Backbone:
């Protein structure tokens, strides 16, 4: 990271998380690497088993050779991922990564930060928007109309995150909805709910 | 202020739901509004082109718009389930092809007995070789295959798909063994033939007709019960003439393009739609399209189409099982074994 | 002499068609088509393929030559338009612009969005024109080479792409680029495989039979993380200093003329290979630019060539992908496949006889491409100026709107609600990957190439009955194999080591001689 400081990366990624010292964020990266590397190792090992399983099943059921069996390429990729995962684990541990942050006490503490709350809320709104996009509303039997859903989503997002006057929020969300709905429905003939 | 806005939003939501929930239904003869055709494969394919072509002709007859959209996925199951889960009132129609015969064994949608079929026609299967190949007749080809088992490579559009099954049927009738090489669609398989990666390809006549005309590809046999003219190679014999004792195999499975609707759609709706369908298939424009794409028009619907579909489903399903591809056993689904 | 004669005749035909094009109706149609194409390109989820598909329906009733104007205009506009959103909001509007994100957005953050947009526009136009020239004069030759691509060649091409993705700039440890690429390949392997029709990783879900689609995934891995990250900002705009630094463009272009020829050739070549398309062309060109650039290590931090290379190549691939379409009826890329379908609807059946029966079609399409790229230059200038203002809008207002467009784009892709489920799930995954320093780009490239590498490897082995030599015993496959081997050797530092050993031994010999 050091050689790229002063370039785009520290603007773009939130790896540094604003004012926190680089040292700290490096440590937290490596901490997460340890967990992810363990996941990778477990995942790729089970993929290896799965690949062998489907390969032998296919060889039994139809006349497949090992080199044409469905698991052949999966096997190669899973093996490569296993090697890379182990290598990542080694690097992360060497650079001071640990799993201490997974202690319940510390997890709760990190869930109390504002950043976590904001991320969670943004995902929740997105999830809600996507679900309402096609799921029939209970007790009504049809999905919510696209325009209503969109106005709600935009409004919620901006009420929560943007610092502008409520009047603008209404204007922006209604205008956007009209533009998107109109152009997709009438110009492009894409059926929206 | 923010709290006020939230209340406004909630009020708008409730009002909108109330307004949309109470649209009255009047009983006028079908069709009173636009019909939606969901094509179960992606844009530009055979089923898509034909569904759109027929829909355009039927619009005039039915007096409403027919809007075609595509919903590929799950080997056609995504589109089929969209139509199936809509009201069975004739306003949701599936644009389909013979792939629908695999719905049951693929466990993606209801089996053929629960659908009603409108079959426009289909392009016959063909075995074709590269123009520089040393075989000028099907006899040469079979002779070469007999001498060297599993050495002659036949490309197809995918394992367990129609053209793969046609090639397997042919090799069984001829008593030889090919090396079957599956590709991701007929296009790549024909490309492989032009690059001489495979010795022959099994696909529809419509898909190779331009290469035949251009002299790059030579058709050897039509894998159907009828022969077909393909310029400049003259009449191409049919597999059924060559192996009359296996004619039934070639009869029961073939490509078709058309529409499907759930079988419990009111019968007068099926009749109205079907009459418009018949007219569209017999339209001169359709005949022109059929000539260009080497399609044999059938215009089947009602009991005739259903019987044919059931026969085809039984052949397709048991083949699927034999190739180890059936996600659901056809016996469990109550699909009889082909006689 | 014969060659010169056809050459002259082609030029004459081409100029005739270019001039005959000028009519009010044609110009208006082309203008509208290019603008719509650019908008399709800009909007995430709407790609060139979908644009052509939608307009196939719209042009159903038009005469063929007018329909061609619209369809080619949309094609050219859409492939270019993807770069605008890649540069401005770091979300590739089309898959082919994914490579442009890396350096394009980095430039925007440095306050050089204007420069990046101009470079992308000029590179796209030059690429399109280069593709047009090769299309006009070398269609028979390129077709003959493209048709030589059989399974081993496709396999090595995919491996080559994967190797490039492995060396892609990663913001943290270099190994993370490789891991992301491999994860992408694994995702590509979900669904029914091509050789035995066997299902992999579907766990009985019929929605997964046909695999994980790539267009929604670009939104999941580029779009969702950007949107969620923006909500944590303090309501700032992306760059408060849009276009403050305006670097003169001409010297940058002049410096890279040779590069443009090279990237254009990559684009045409890969575009002409049946079914591969502009996505891979952009990455291969990006990799090439990075390898040859004196400051190659700085790629990903805002290097001009990192914008120009992929944009030249993906637009050159338009001409490339039309080459086998016109000469053989085989589409070179997914949008070209859509174009093929549109031609068939208009009663033209492309095949080996097409250019013989309609001798005017090659110069006619060439003229349309020429006009399309001229319109693209002009419309692009106007539209990007307007869109650069987006960067000044606070992200907390802009990004929710982008979010709506992303979700609608996913839905419009195939009208499949299941894709929304996929996008949300992988969006969360993509967000965490991003936070942990994994680049999204190799993952997407892996997703594009994974299935191709798998199916063609096993098909090649099936055809050679398991003989590994069958993978390298043809001239093109052997060349590709060599290129892959050299790339790996270079990556592992073997080349430098061998060089060092050679110089050492020479030094030793010299000292002995002395």
Residues:
């Amino acid at each position: 990271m050091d050689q790229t400081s002063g370039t785009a990366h520290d603007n773009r990624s939130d790896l540094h998380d604003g004012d926190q010292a680089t040292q700290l964020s490096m440590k937290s990266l490596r901490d997460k690497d340890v967990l992810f590397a363990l996941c990778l190792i477990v995942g790729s090992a089970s993929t290896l088993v799965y690949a062998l399983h489907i390969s032998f099943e296919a060889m039994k059921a139809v006349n497949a050779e090992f080199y044409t069996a469905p698991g052949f390429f999966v096997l190669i990729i899973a093996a490569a991922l296993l090697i890379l995962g182990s290598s990542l684990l080694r690097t992360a541990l060497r650079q001071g990564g640990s799993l201490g942050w997974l202690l319940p006490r510390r997890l709760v503490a990190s869930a109390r930060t504002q950043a976590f709350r904001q991320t969670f809320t943004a995902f929740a709104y997105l999830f809600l928007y996507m679900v309402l996009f096609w799921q029939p509303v209970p007790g009504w039997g049809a999905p919510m109309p696209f325009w209503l859903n969109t106005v709600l989503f935009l409004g919620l997002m901006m009420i929560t995150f943007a610092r502008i006057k409520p009047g603008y929020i209404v204007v922006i969300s209604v205008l956007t909805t009209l533009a998107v709905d109109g152009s997709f429905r009438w110009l492009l003939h894409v059926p929206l709910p | 202020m923010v709290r006020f806005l939230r209340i406004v939003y909630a009020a708008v939501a409730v009002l909108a739901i109330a307004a949309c929930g109470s649209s009255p239904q009047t009983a006028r003869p079908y069709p009173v509004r636009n019909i939606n055709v969901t094509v179960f494969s992606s844009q530009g394919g055979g089923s898509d082109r034909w569904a759109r072509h027929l829909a355009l002709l039927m619009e005039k007859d039915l007096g409403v718009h027919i809007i075609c959209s595509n919903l590929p996925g799950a080997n056609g199951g995504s589109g089929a389930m969209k139509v199936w889960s809509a009201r069975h009132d004739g306003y949701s129609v599936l644009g389909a092809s013979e792939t629908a015969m695999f719905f049951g064994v693929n466990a993606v949608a209801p089996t053929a007995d629960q659908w009603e079929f409108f079959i426009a026609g289909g392009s016959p299967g063909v075995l074709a070789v590269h123009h520089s190949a040393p075989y000028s007749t099907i006899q040469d080809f079979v002779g070469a295959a007999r001498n060297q088992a599993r050495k002659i490579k036949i490309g197809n559009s995918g394992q367990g798909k129609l053209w793969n099954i046609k090639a397997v049927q042919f090799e069984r009738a001829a008593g030889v063994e090919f090396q079957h090489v599956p590709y991701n669609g007929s296009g790549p398989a024909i490309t492989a033939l032009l690059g001489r990666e495979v010795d022959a390809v099994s696909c529809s006549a419509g898909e190779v007709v331009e290469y035949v005309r251009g002299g790059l590809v030579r058709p050897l046999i039509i894998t159907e019960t009828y022969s077909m003219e393909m310029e400049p190679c003259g009449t191409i014999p049919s597999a059924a003439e060559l192996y009359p004792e296996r004619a039934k195999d070639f009869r029961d499975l073939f490509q078709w393009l058309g529409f499907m609707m759930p079988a419990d759609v009111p019968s007068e709706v099926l009749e109205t739609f079907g009459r418009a369908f018949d007219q569209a298939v017999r339209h001169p424009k359709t005949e022109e399209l059929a000539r260009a794409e080497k399609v044999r028009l059938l215009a089947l619907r009602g009991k005739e189409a259903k019987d044919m579909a059931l026969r085809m489903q039984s052949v397709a399903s048991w083949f699927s099982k034999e190739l180890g591809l059936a996600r659901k056993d056809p016996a469990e689904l109550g699909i009889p074994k082909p006689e | 002499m014969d060659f010169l004669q056809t050459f002259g005749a082609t030029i004459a035909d081409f100029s005739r068609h270019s001039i005959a094009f000028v009519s009010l109706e044609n110009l208006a149609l082309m203008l509208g088509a290019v603008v719509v194409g650019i908008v399709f390109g800009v909007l995430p989820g709407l790609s060139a393929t979908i644009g052509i598909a939608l307009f196939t329906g719209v042009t159903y009733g038009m005469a063929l030559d007018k329909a061609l104007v619209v369809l080619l205009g949309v094609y050219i506009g859409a492939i270019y338009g993807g770069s605008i959103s890649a540069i401005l909001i770091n979300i590739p509007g089309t898959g082919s612009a994914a490579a442009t994100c890396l350096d394009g957005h980095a430039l925007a953050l440095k306050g050089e969005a204007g420069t990046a947009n101009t470079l992308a526009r000029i590179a796209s136009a030059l690429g399109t024109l280069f593709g047009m020239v090769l299309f006009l004069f070398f269609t028979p030759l390129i077709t003959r080479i493209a048709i030589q691509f059989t399974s081993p060649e496709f396999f090595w091409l995919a491996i080559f792409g994967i190797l490039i993705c492995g060396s892609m700039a990663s913001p943290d440890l270099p190994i993370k680029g490789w891991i992301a690429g491999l994860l992408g390949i694994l995702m590509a392997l979900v669904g029914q495989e091509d050789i035995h029709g066997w299902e992999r990783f579907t766990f009985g879900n019929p929605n997964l039979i046909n695999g994980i689609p790539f267009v929604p995934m670009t939104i999941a891995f580029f779009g969702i993380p950007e949107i969620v990250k923006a909500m944590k900002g303090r309501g700032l705009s992306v760059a408060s200093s849009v276009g403050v630094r305006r670097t003169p463009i001409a010297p940058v272009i002049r410096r890279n003329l040779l590069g443009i020829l090279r990237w254009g050739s990559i684009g045409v070549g890969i575009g002409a290979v049946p079914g591969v398309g502009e996505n891979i062309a952009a990455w291969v060109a990006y990799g090439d630019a990075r390898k040859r650039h004196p400051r190659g290590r700085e790629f990903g931090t805002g290097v001009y060539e990192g914008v120009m290379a992929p944009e030249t190549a993906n637009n050159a691939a338009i001409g490339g992908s039309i080459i086998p379409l016109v000469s053989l009826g085989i589409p070179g890329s997914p949008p070209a496949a859509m174009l093929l379908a549109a031609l068939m609807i208009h009663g033209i059946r492309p095949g080996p006889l097409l250019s013989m029966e309609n001798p005017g079609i090659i110069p006619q399409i060439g003229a349309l491409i020429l006009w399309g790229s001229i319109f693209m230059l002009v419309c692009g200038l106007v539209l990007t100026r307007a869109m650069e203002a987006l960067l000044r809008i606070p992200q907390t207002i802009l990004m929710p709107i982008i979010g709506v467009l992303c979700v609608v784009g996913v839905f419009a892709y195939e009208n499949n609600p299941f894709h929304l489920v996929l996008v949300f799930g992988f969006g969360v995954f993509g967000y965490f990957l991003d936070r942990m320093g994994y680049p999204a780009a190799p993952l997407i490239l892996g997703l594009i190439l994974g299935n191709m590498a798998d199916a063609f490897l096993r098909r090649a082995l099936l055809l050679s009955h398991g003989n590994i030599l069958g993978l390298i015993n043809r001239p093109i496959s052997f060349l590709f194999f060599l290129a892959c081997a050299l790339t790996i050797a270079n990556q592992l530092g073997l080349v430098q080591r061998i060089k060092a050993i050679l110089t050492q031994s020479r030094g030793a010999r010299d000292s002995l001689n002395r």
About this structure: Chain B touches chain A at residues 1-2, 4-6, 9, 12-13, 16-17, 20-21, 67, 69, 323-324 (CB under 8 Å). Residues 18-26 of chain B have pLDDT under 50 and may be disordered. Chain B has 13 helices and 13 strands. Residues 125-252 of chain B form a domain with the D-Maltodextrin-Binding Protein; domain 2 fold (CATH 3.40.190.10).
